[in-house]
Design brief:
- This protein is mainly alpha-helical and 76 residues long.
- The protein has one domain (16-75).
- The chain has three helices and no strands.
- The protein has helices spanning 6-12, 17-54, 57-75.
- It starts with 5 loop residues before the first helix and ends with a helix.
- Residues 31-67 form the IDEAL domain.
- This is IDEAL domain-containing protein.
- It comes from Bacillus thermotolerans.
Length: 76
């Protein structure tokens, strides 16, 4: 199946439209969640690096805990 025929082939698919929408919605939700996770993770990593550079142990521990919680939530 070529890319230009993809939509036409999907419309012929035996899967009911509601299930198609559900699958598409689930995919989009997962994609958005992954994007949000990555942005928050990058933000925390940058803050952790800054805390290390400044020798700020308290901030490092707090930010590391937040990062661990975020990663546990995303993998759950």
């Amino acid at each position: 199946m070529e890319n230009n025929n993809y939509f036409a082939e999907m419309m012929k698919s035996p899967m009911p439209r509601e299930k198609k929408k559900s699958a598409t919605s689930a995919y989009i939700d997962n994609l958005l969640n992954e994007i949000l996770f990555n942005q928050e993770r990058q933000k925390l990593m940058k803050s952790i690096d800054q805390a290390l550079d400044e020798g700020n142990r308290k901030s490092f521990i707090e930010l590391s805990s937040k990062l661990n919680e975020l990663e546990k939530k995303f993998k759950a």
